[in-house]
Amino acid sequence: MSTMRKIVIVGATSAMAEHCARLWLQQGVDEMVLIGRDVQRTERVAADLRVRAPQCRIETISSDFLQPEAIARTVDQACNTINPDIVLIAHGSLPEQADCQQDLQQNRAALEVNALSPVLFAEAFATHLEQAGQGKLVLIGSVAGDRGRKSNYVYGAAKGLVTRYAQGLQHRFAGSRIQVLLVKPGPTDTPMTAHIKSSGAKLASVEQVAANIVSGVARGKMVIYAPAKWQLIMLIIRHLPRVIFNQMNI
Length: 250
Hints:
By secondary structure, this protein is α/β, with parallel strands linked by helices. It has ten helices and nine strands.
């Protein structure tokens, strides 16, 4: 495997992104740029990764993730720092559905951070990858985006937008040396899902999900369900007749 790889990670403080970074460093990466909203948290992640891979040059960038102008400047800065082979867009939040129903500000915030922000980053990086003529653009969506469900339809709608956007980018770059890969994790044991875990839900380990992502990216899979079992589960859920689906408490 080539050691001449350069990676940019947006939302580098997320547990999923951090574990992907660790795996990539084990494979041999020359340069990595970590983009985060919180300067101190991003630097802590970078410091840990530098200890794990002293040979890798790791830079950090802090940014506002909601303002288009700030996103454009951040992407320009990242791509001026390195010419990325892989861009991972991994940030987001998991809102409480009830809170989003009762508070339109929280509803809007959930849609902005989980949908608008990732696709704006994706569009900005797509321009740079197109200019470079190569690269992999990886967006983390969710199985929640496969079908709207009463338990999380605000989050699901946001991830559904990411899915459609990724599909459009895949169509745009079909036949080129640019690959757009969509990751659809199932419920994963991270700080973002702590409130779900406390209710007794079974969650996949973040290590397993990260391994699925890194493996899928290496193979150039257009859609990566993580863990893989969710591909079959969501196939069934997507095709359930409405009369049956509406009786389910999911």
